[in-house]
Amino acid sequence: MAAPVTKVGILISGRGSNMMALVEQARGYEVALIASDKPDAAGIAWAQQHGLATFTQSPKGIPKAEYEAAIDAALRDASVEIIALAGYMRLLSDDFVARWRGKIINIHPSLLPKYKGLDTHARAMEAGEAVAGCSVHVVTEELDGGEVLGQAEVPILPGDTPDTLAARVLEAEHRLYPRILAEFCAR
Questions:
Q1: pLDDT digits (tens, 9 = 90+) for 153-170
Q2: Given the residues 108, 121, 137, 174, the one annotated as active site
Q3: Could you say which of 14, 94, 100, 180 is the most buried, measured as most Cβ atoms within 10 Å of its Cβ?
């Protein structure tokens, strides 16, 4: 008898390249819903073209609790068990994180615990680091502070700019995130 497949919901805000990698490399999990805070996100159009269930809700003009309640309801209606943040650019409230405690993971473009938050590539370069990279971690109430589940290193090359480094880190993200999500779902 085959092992049960974990249903995953992916939250995005933009083009969804990590979401695409998660969909295309899915092993041991099924993508049950793609949700976005931006109804016109390119990743939503891609998901719809590929027959995936989608949900969009703009947070503009509504209280954060109401916005998150709509996302939560859509995830639960799709029987989602694990949430993967993939370029989702909104901070989740402590209440939302508590409702899904231990069930949300995120990909972050630095070798955590270094360079939490934004502008990670520029900050790593300014600090004179030899390597940068990405981390998949469990989401907690602390920004980029949960258990690190996996990392991939990328060398910082002479002549790199934050953009060239970001492009190479993104390639590493596309390899790392699907593997770590599959391992996380198998726990």
A1: 999 999 999 999 999 999
A2: 108
A3: 180
In a domain, 123, yes or no: yes
Q: Which structure tokens are listed for 139? A: 């989401």
Whether 81 maps to a domain, the answer reads: yes
Domain interval for residue 102: 6-185
Distance of alpha carbon 35 from alpha carbon 47, whole angstroms: 10
Question: Considering its fold, how many domains does the chain have in total?
Answer: 1
The answer to whether residue 1 is domain-embedded is no
Tens digits of residue pLDDT in 136-153: 999 999 999 999 999 999
Q: Which DSSP category does 32 fall into?
A: E
- Whichever domain contains 174, its CATH number is 3.40.50.170
20 in a domain, yes or no? yes
Q: Strands of the chain (E only): list them.
A: 6-12, 29-36, 54-56, 82-85, 104-108, 131-138, 148-155
108 counts as catalytic: yes
104: helix, coil or strand?
strand
**C-beta separation of 66 from 37 below 8 A:** no
Give helix 42-49 / helix 17-24 axis angle, nearest 10°.
20
Closest CA to 38 of 7, 55, 73, 13: 13
- Radius of gyration for the alpha carbons in the chain, expressed in angstroms and rounded: 16
